[in-house]
Design goal:
four-stranded mixed β-sheet; about 450 residues; 12 helices; alpha/beta; Rossmann fold; single chain; six-stranded mixed β-sheet
């Protein structure tokens, strides 16, 4: 859309929002004036005379009251009084929190209703609580994000819908919302995220379980002697630790964004907070230029990746160009070189991220594995045409077994192992479970 035309439309919208008369109110006023002029004065119909006068008085009183309350609240909402208690706070998606934003409810005025919602960040459910004559704002974020300002759209209207005024206000505040981990924290599934093939490596350090047996030599601990074997054979044998699974001492991880990426962000958060990557690790995400090696900046990167769709022109947040550059740049970082293992957290639905991500890993010298996260699975079934016309699905659609099977085949065909985790149930699916999902799909 051309910019001059866009500016004119915005100006018309601001003008429309400032006029305290809705379309319904204009119709009521028009028909009341017609009844009063044509029949009340024209034919001296007393009933229509009373109806016309009452309609005009009701519309005028409503417009005057709504305009006065809107003018008062507009000054209060734009004032300098402290309102937001959510400044510089780290919250979790799905959990309600009081932001501290409040406005007078004007409960004693008849017919007046006050409501507002968040324009930015998106996917935030705003609820209003009445307490001590004031409306307190309670927000529930449906998606992770990190923003430096909150933009609200406030509306004052009457109970009959005859008058309405609206305006927008932006409040500077630092707000970080982390993804909801669901049941992932209650399961030991994250312990397998940083392992590669799951097999001992001959070059690994002797840090595994004590599975191997050899003859006793001076200096071995007495606690590791197999006394039952000694009683039977009169030979001293001891257990020694097997070689560790990982040759490398460093694990790096990256979060890809795309349709249905909230479970993947939750899995990455759990992995970071539980310390499954060990001591020396590095984390990156779409929307972050520099990788993080400590917990707080890594969590900020997870939250910031959820705001890509709202900050980038175009609005969908799933462009392949940024995603390819992000992962490929991360894999070329000087600290992501040598014998490292890269764990990539990916959405459970195929999207524009797949081809660029696989292309970025082809020239990577280290080991790569994928953690594919979902919020439950459903079987794909045809939707009747009448249902698509009459009903609109809210929120992100759930991943289907067919989509997940196609995604795992693509990742497996590139030679990378994958672990499937379900945030809704807390379960994980290894190779056997993935074959079962493929058969179901």
């Amino acid at each position: 859309m051309p910019k001059p035309l866009l500016h004119r439309l915005r100006a018309l919208r601001r003008l429309r929002d400032g006029v305290p008369l809705s379309a319904r109110g204009a119709l009521v006023a028009m028909f009341s004036a017609l009844a009063l002029w044509r029949f009340g004065f024209g034919t001296l119909d007393l009933l229509l005379f009373v109806v016309g006068i009452s309609g005009l008085i009701l519309v005028g009183f409503s417009a005057l009251l709504v305009g006065a309350v809107g003018f008062r609240l507009r000054r209060l909402s734009g004032g300098g009084r402290p309102r937001s208690a959510a400044a510089a706070r780290r919250l979790e998606a799905g959990s309600p929190f009081l932001t501290g934003f409040r406005l007078p409810a004007f409960s004693r005025l008849p017919l007046i209703k006050i409501h507002w919602r968040w324009l930015y960040p998106e996917a935030v459910d705003c609820r209003l609580r009445l307490k001590d004559g004031e409306l307190l704002e309670e927000a529930i974020a449906g998606r992770r994000c990190q923003v430096a300002a909150i933009r609200r759209r406030l509306t004052v209207f009457d109970a009959f819908g005859l008058s309405r005024v609206s305006w927008e206000r932006e409040e500077p505040t630092s707000l970080t919302v982390l993804p909801d981990v669901g049941r992932l924290r209650r399961t030991p599934v994250v312990q397998s995220m940083s392992s590669a093939e799951g097999l001992p490596h001959p070059r690994g350090a002797p840090e595994g379980d004590r599975m191997e047996i050899r003859r006793y030599v001076p200096g071995d601990s007495v606690r590791h002697i197999l006394w039952k074997t000694y009683a039977r054979t009169r030979q001293l044998n001891v257990r020694i630790p097997e070689r560790s699974i990982e040759v490398s001492k460093k694990t790096v991880a990256y979060l890809l964004t795309g349709p249905g990426d909230e479970p993947a962000a939750a899995a990455a958060r759990v992995a970071l907070e539980t310390g499954v990557f060990g001591i020396d690790w590095l984390f990156g995400a779409d929307g972050t230029d520099q990788p993080a090696d400590t917990l707080e900046p890594a969590l900020d990167a997870i939250a910031r990746s959820g705001s890509i769709a709202a900050t980038r022109p175009g609005g969908n947040g799933h462009g392949a160009g940024e995603r390819a550059g992000g992962l490929s740049t991360f894999l070329r970082h000087p600290r992501v070189q040598g014998e490292v293992h890269c764990v990539i957290f990916a959405p459970g639905r195929p999207g524009a991220w797949m081809e660029p991500a696989l292309a970025a890993t082809r020239n990577f010298s280290g080991a790569v594995s994928f953690v594919v996260a979902t919020d439950g699975l459903v079987r794909q079934q045809p939707v009747p045409l009448w249902r698509r016309w009459l009903f609109v699905e809210e929120g992100e659609p759930q991943a289907t077994t067919q989509e997940l099977s196609r995604l795992l085949k693509t990742v497996g065909g590139a030679g990378y192992p994958a672990l499937v985790v379900d945030r809704k149930s807390g379960k994980s699916f290894g190779p056997e479970g993935q074959r079962a999902l493929g058969a179901a799909g």
